[in-house]
Write a structure and sequence with these properties.
Strand order of the largest sheet: 14-15-16-13-12-17-18
Radius of gyration: 23 Å
CATH topology of the largest domain: Aldehyde Dehydrogenase, Chain A, domain 1
Structural class: alpha/beta
Number of helices: 16
Number of domains: 2
Distance between the termini: 75 Å
Number of strands: 20
CATH class of the largest domain: Alpha Beta
Helix content: 40-55%
CATH superfamily of the largest domain: Aldehyde Dehydrogenase, Chain A, domain 1
CATH architecture of the largest domain: 3-Layer(aba) Sandwich
Strand content: 15-25%
């Protein structure tokens, strides 16, 4: 039997069975018995119905996570044992990579090329990276100066029960970003996947059980942010919330977490500037600007949605971006020929179309796109859209659109562009394109952003920290920085006299 066909049959089999949540090592329905549909955004067709979890289900999951942390074998496992489980999980995901990629594409809409070449391999490597860290979490001895003879040392211990709420733009990869470091540090987890894209999280739960994680170490509750997500944030026995999503929701999470002073880490929105100087290699800068906005249909927190081009090369850059945008082949993500898929949901489609209309109303010049293609009317497709604007205060220049919409704007010099680039409540990422090394470093140092790419864009690595300045978030994921999010530091004093 053809391998691709057999994988597709496994995916159909997964979609055809009753979906349940993973709580305390058991696959269960919602306490209420309610379900909700998850939809293929390329067609509008229902893929499956999943449990509509709410506060009662979250409470069961939190209790299971607490038992696993304090009464089960998890806390007695050695770091090497935790490491081996994470490595085994990575291997299992890799074995079923094609199945995960197809399921991700059907549920999210992104192209199969992105799922197969970026999301799933990135997930595998993230679990492997933090599997390696499990045996390397150390404290230190401190030469204290109080009178007498004392040994003072620190320990890094798990925070405890961690509630993790992930977004819909990179469903499986974001689950890995949250789960892997939490487990490496010895925590237990209650994961709430996005209601738009819950399916790969549920398949991941099957593999978590298969490789031998103790019951209750990872619990997966499907449901809506307003119910299941809010219950997780407000639960008094959750020690930490880790969230990736919009800045608006991030503010609400901070307010809810105040009830029991939960630890909070937030990876939030962005309105990232991508800056092109005249001395840049335009054969790289223009494709870099295009990829910076259209990757994953523009549904990326770090999307370079504000492209600033210095006068002198402005018309050339704009012309090339328009030509490319008009040539993009839109279609169902599962079609290998598609270069861009649909947006994730009808709600997101309407949001993006609203911003496009606002851009027109406020005077930005629409050069291409701005509509749904006629031949794809059943899905949530938006044409790649290019605006030109000179004002920095337009809505489409200030608010995160989260779609394939870019605004190109001119600038005069470094002082001008730094002021414009930093004129935002966000500070997640930025790009700089120039062949002048002094200009590159000077601009990078002046930009208020957690990541600055020079002559590249959208590069990430498991060893490099990720997070934002200002209202783009709190804390850093990936690298050894992520260990700080999932451990508490204990200081121990021993009197040697």
């Amino acid at each position: 039997m053809d391998q691709a066909l057999s994988v597709q049959e496994r995916v159909r089999g997964f979609l055809g069975r009753e979906q349940k949540m993973l709580i305390g090592g058991q696959w269960v329905s919602a306490v209420s018995g309610k379900t909700f549909p998850t939809v293929n955004p390329a067609t509008g067709e229902v893929l499956a119905h999943v449990p509509d979890g709410d506060a009662a289900d979250v409470d069961k999951a939190v209790r299971a996570a607490r038992r696993a942390l304090e009464e089960g074998p998890w806390s007695r496992m050695t770091p090497a044992e935790r490491s081996r489980l994470l490595y085994k999980l990575a291997d299992k995901i890799e074995e079923r990579a094609t199945e995960f990629a197809q399921l991700e594409t059907l549920d999210n809409g992104k192209t199969i090329r992105e799922s197969a070449n970026i999301d799933i391999p990135g997930t595998v490597e993230h679990f492997r990276y933090f599997a390696g860290w499990a045996t390397k979490i150390t404290g230190e001895t401190i030469p204290v100066s109080v009178p007498g003879h004392f040994l003072n040392y620190t320990r890094r211990e798990p925070v405890g029960v961690v509630g993790q709420i992930i977004p819909w733009n990179f469903p499986l990869l974001m689950a890995a970003w949250k789960i892997a470091p939490a487990l490496a540090c010895g925590n237990t987890v209650v994961l709430k996947p996005a209601e738009q894209t819950p399916l790969t999280a549920l398949l991941l739960g099957e593999l978590i059980q298969e490789v031998g994680f103790p019951d209750g170490v990872v619990n997966i509750v499907t449901g809506f942010g307003e119910t299941a997500g809010a219950a997780l944030v407000n639960h008094p026995d959750v020690d930490k919330i880790a969230f990736t999503g919009s800045t608006e929701v991030g503010r609400k999470i901070m307010q809810g977490a105040a009830g029991n002073m939960k630890r909070v880490s937030l990876e939030l929105g962005g309105k990232s500037p991508n800056i092109i100087f005249p001395d840049a290699d335009l054969s790289k800068a223009i494709p870099g600007a295009i990829m910076g906005i259209y990757f994953n249909q523009g549904q990326v927190c770090a999307a370079g949605s504000r492209v600033y081009v210095q006068k002198g090369v402005f018309d050339n850059v704009v012309s090339n971006m328009v030509d490319y945008s008009k040539s993009v082949r839109l279609g169902p993500g599962i079609d290998p020929q598609s270069e861009m898929g649909p947006l994730v949901s009808n709600e997101q489609f309407n949001r993006v179309m609203h911003y496009i209309e606002r851009g027109r109303e406020e005077g930005a010049e629409l050069l291409c796109g701005g509509a749904r293609p006629d031949h794809l009317s059943n899905g949530y497709f938006v044409q790649p859209t290019v605006f030109v604007a000179t004002q920095n205060d337009l809505t489409i220049m200030r608010e995160e659109i989260f779609g394939p919409v870019v605004v190109v704007s001119p600038f005069n010099d470094i002082e001008d562009i730094v002021k414009k680039a930093n004129d935002t409540m966000y500070g997640l990422a930025a790009g700089v394109w120039t062949n002048d090394i002094r200009k590159a470093h000077r601009t990078a140092h002046l930009l208020k952003a957690g990541t600055v790419w020079v002559n590249c864009y959208n590069l990430i690595d498991n060893a490099s920290p990720w997070g934002g300045f200002k209202q783009s978030g709190i804390g850093r994921e990936m690298g050894h920085y992520a260990l700080e999010l999932y451990t508490e530091v204990k200081s121990v004093w021993v009197n040697l006299d």
